[in-house]
Input
Amino acid sequence: MVPQIRIEDYNYPLDDSRIAKYPLAERDASKLLHYKDSHVEEFSFRDLPSLLPAGAMMVFNETKVVPARMFFQRETGAHIEIFCLEPVSPPEYNTIFAATERCSWKCVVGNLKKWKNDVLSLINTADDKDIAELSLRASLVKKEGNTAVVEFTWNTGVPFSRVLDMAGKVPIPPYLNRDTEDIDLERYQTLYARVSGSVAAPTAGLHFTQRVLDGISAKGIDINKVCLHVGAGTFLPVKSSNVADHPMHREPFSVGIGLLRKLRDRKVPLIAVGTTSVRTLESLYYAGVDCIEKGAPEDIGQWVPYEREYPYSTEEVLKALVEYLESNGLEELKLGTRIIIVPGFKFRIVDYLVTNFHQPESTLILLVSAFVNGDWRRIYDFALANGFRFLSYGDSSLLERAR
Output
């Protein structure tokens, strides 16, 4: 049954002055709020290893932000901003980034109403010779509501990943109210980012330094990676008063068979770095249910966790998932998820969560509330009263799941 939740119950006063517009000079110099058994305490992020259970498992999202914003102009001189969301042709991230002449993307287009059927030219404000030689063009294939399918063509035979590096800008969150700057090229990216595809950073990971990672390893914590490519939907506010009316966008994820085997066999707590890691890991349960009931996993629907009671243990479904991959000779699970985690969600895999402080009335506040059994206001009131910085470049928290 779809939960009936009023989004206005998840509001809090966030003044613009509390939003961190820039990162701190050092990634791990941020504050860290620790929540355990309804008790809240302040630490430095460098203290994180000392607060984690020795011998646990820890899971990071290794997605990499791509410079997905590009600026074009019509022959009339009108400027058109194009923000690449997800591949259309070729349909996979690895193949579309390797394309060397043309490719098509689903995009958000600024001034879409002004774009007729003419071909756009990339704006080259710096008169960069290499960018000029690209001769990058954009053609409107079709409009799809608030988005459009756009075909890009270029001359020099370089892969599209290089085209974006040359012509694109890192899509920092709109609530920063500023243009992308040089510092964002480095700091709006985790140290361990490896697989290109996100249009937003998994921001809980922005605090990690090699010093902190070494401290985590020294406690015998087993570090693992998943990949979920973060879509532009992460910036979308919940506009409907009833959360049941809010659509979640599909985000592709992949999990290696080695990690699935560890999850199947684990006897230790699991720490997820970021809400994207949580959504990936908790989606695995329902992928495993599909293996048991349908013989193969399917994309995870938004409300699947709430539609009925599931009789299977976590070990059973993960066993089915591993067996499916093994029988099909697959080294990793690749699926999409629209899962929304709201109060009433039954967590089956994640025990600890490292996460930043999120926007009022957002789906991420709902996830935090579900994780701490509704006690999210205690956490946010403490952060507001004690000078914590908010949102993507803000401070961090370590939350232990309410039992």
